[in-house]
Amino acid sequence: MARVEAVVFASPEPVTRELLVRVVGKDCSIDLLVEDIGNELAGRPYEIVAVAGGWQFRTRLRHGEVLQAALGGTPSAPHITEGEMLVLASVAYHQPVTRRGLADIVGREVGREVIARLRELDFIASGPRSPQPGAPFTYVTTRRFLEHFGLDTLRDLPDLEALEDAGLLDRKGAARTGIPVAGQEDGEEGPDEAGPGLDREF
């Protein structure tokens, strides 16, 4: 347990099962060791969590306000616009997906700068080429995406209908309003609906 705890504590990234096996040997049950560590941390302000296919120590959510008051927020967290988040969610739920496929999902063209921004954040990467004519690139999410959003695997993504029912996601509304259109000045209203040519762009 001490070896596992030391490695996870010292690592800036989630520690994989393979690495822990090298640390404690194949005869030890990694899952039982992690469970024991979790039980010992039950009363502590941090916990060991499964993230991005590995384990990491993270402060418990209930202490978030304390950290924000003491440290002034999380300046290292990347800023993601509403439009970028919608595209990222579309990639997450429909991967591998082409840029044209993303346009069909969100109802408007997805600008190359949005793709470039999400790639810069290491949230998406190129996937296999599509079998469509021209073999366009597809996009998939990355391990960094899982780590940032506290997911162990893509199976941990919340159900889309549940998000909409909770008022946390409005796919149709987000595609129509509230997201800047390429070439549109702040405060300028765009057309109510995207045209058949998907002439509007994030």
What order do the helices and strands come in, and which of them pair?
Blueprint: H1 2-10, E1 15-16, H2 17-24, H3 30-40, E2 46-51, E3 54-59, H4 64-71, H5 82-94, H6 99-106, H7 112-120, E4 124-126, E5 139-141, H8 143-148, H9 160-165, H10 171-176
Helix pairs in contact: 5-7
Which percent bin holds the helix content?
40-55%
How do the strands line up in the largest sheet? 1-3-2
The assigned structural class equals mainly alpha
Q: Give the overall silhouette.
A: globular
- Count of runs of 4 or more consecutive helical residues: 10
Largest sheet: 3 strands, antiparallel
- Distance between termini? 49 Å
| Uncertain runs | 173-199
Name the beta content range. Answer: 5-15%
- Mean pLDDT value: 80
State Rg. Answer: 21 Å
Order of helices and strands: HEHHEEHHHHEEHHH
The strand count comes to 5
Report on this model:
With 202 residues, the protein is mainly alpha-helical. The protein contains ten helices and five strands; from the N terminus they run H-E-H-H-E-E-H-H-H-H-E-E-H-H-H. The strands form two sheets. The chain has a three-stranded antiparallel β-sheet. A two-stranded antiparallel sheet has the order 4-5. The longest helix has 13 residues, at 82-94. It is globular, with a radius of gyration of 21 Å. The termini are far apart. The model is unreliable at 173-199 (pLDDT under 50).
